Amino acid sequence: MSTGTVTKPSAAPKGGGRRKLTLPWIMLIVAAGLLLFSFVRAVSGANDLTSVGQVSGALKLAVPIGLAGLGGLWAERAGVVNIGLEGMMVLGTWFGAWAGYQWGPWTGVLVGLLGGALGGLLHAIITVTFNVNHIVSGVAVNILAVGFTQYLSNFTFAEAEGGSSKQSPRIDEIYEITVPGLSDWLTDLQGKHWFFISDVAGILGGLVTNLSLLTIVALLLIPATWWLLWRTAFGLRLRSCGENPVAAESLGVNVYKYKYIAVTVSGALAGLGGAFLAIVSTGIYQEGQTGGRGYIGLAAMIFGNWMPGGMALGAGLFGFTDSLKLRGGAENVHALLLLVALLLVIAALWQLYKKKYVVGVISAAFAGGFFLWYALTDEVPSQFVDAAPYVTTLLVLALSAQRLRMPKADGLPYRKGQGK
């Protein structure tokens, strides 16, 4: 009598990775965040935190950061680290202002985009063709862009009426849209300072008040990038160059071509962000006006885990903190101390639930410190207000570092023919 061997089905592997957030969960998290924000506003009395003007200003400040981050995403998804985003933004501000004051703002936008694209092309030649270290090349592009624009300003803006060697003449404005009726109604509703309802009204009102046409273009570039890179054959080939260029080349992908396209588009998007700064945000070119936004855009991209949606959230966060100092900064930042303390309490409870007692206790201790700081002071020093965007950058990167997954071949050297 033979004994049959019975093979037991293997146990399903335990899901150790993070679950992908679905739309209902995302909406729930957003609603919870708004409730927490509304609570902080109601307790602190800082009613400007979610006002129409605050949200509108935050959006205007977030767009250049988001465009720089989107540019970094294009380059790094193809395997090229682009530290030169800051320099490409500088080129975009100068070329955008130079063309804008002579031939109109939309010509300035186009020329600023082309100026950034030239910086991206230079970075691509250095890193892709000559295989120079990406960080070294990016730093060199930043230095060259600043020196090049300073040199050009001496015999262009300095000789123009209303300009100088450090700034351009005034540039005509791009048309802004305000939805009639809806904007006024939301502004009135926000002014009533009702719990949660007024906060939602303030956020929605900021999205339909004084909205530049270029802002709309920038916002549309985010879903366009997602569709192009994740829903087309072109995007699949480009991303394969950042994950495994050797395998991509073995399948017939022209890796050099896709890297060149990605880095040039990266520079063009950063240049568009620079043109936005000069034409929309200020209406004038000023030396040093990028203020490190290229680096903050890179941080927003990393915070967003090299995804367009996450990058947009990071840019919005940085734009919001940057706008605080423009509208009653000391009072608003003081209210954020309470928000940070509450977030740390939630983090502490979560860590204790997961039996990570050391991290939980440390989070609770920091929460207590922020509560005391909030309770014992009426406002924060002006220096802290000015540093808020950069402190936020460091904190966000530190807290999100453990969940990041960069493209596997990002920044790694590659020579044509390795996949053959």
Structural summary, described in words:
The protein is an all-alpha fold and 420 residues long. It is built from 16 helices and 2 strands. It has helices at 23-44, 52-77, 85-103, 105-129, 134-155, 182-191, 197-206, 213-230, 233-243, 245-250, 255-281, 293-303, 308-324, 329-353, 357-376, 382-400; strands at residues 176-177, 211-212. It has a two-stranded antiparallel sheet. Helix 3 runs antiparallel to helix 4 and helix 12 runs parallel beside helix 16. The protein is globular. It starts with 22 loop residues before the first helix and ends in a 20-residue tail after the last helix. Mean pLDDT is 87; it is low at 1-17.
Brief summary of the model shown:
With 420 residues, the chain is mostly helical.
Strand content: under 5%
Envelope shape: globular
Mean pLDDT: 87
Largest sheet features: 2 strands, antiparallel
What characteristics describe this protein?
disordered N terminus; two-stranded antiparallel sheet; mainly alpha; about 0% strand; 16 helices; about 425 residues
Outline the secondary-structure elements.
Elements: H1 23-44, H2 52-77, H3 85-103, H4 105-129, H5 134-155, E1 176-177, H6 182-191, H7 197-206, E2 211-212, H8 213-230, H9 233-243, H10 245-250, H11 255-281, H12 293-303, H13 308-324, H14 329-353, H15 357-376, H16 382-400
Antiparallel strand pairs: 1-2
Helix pairs in contact: 1-14, 2-7, 2-8, 2-11, 2-12, 2-13, 3-4, 3-5, 3-11, 3-12, 4-5, 4-11, 6-7, 8-9, 12-13, 12-16, 13-16, 14-15
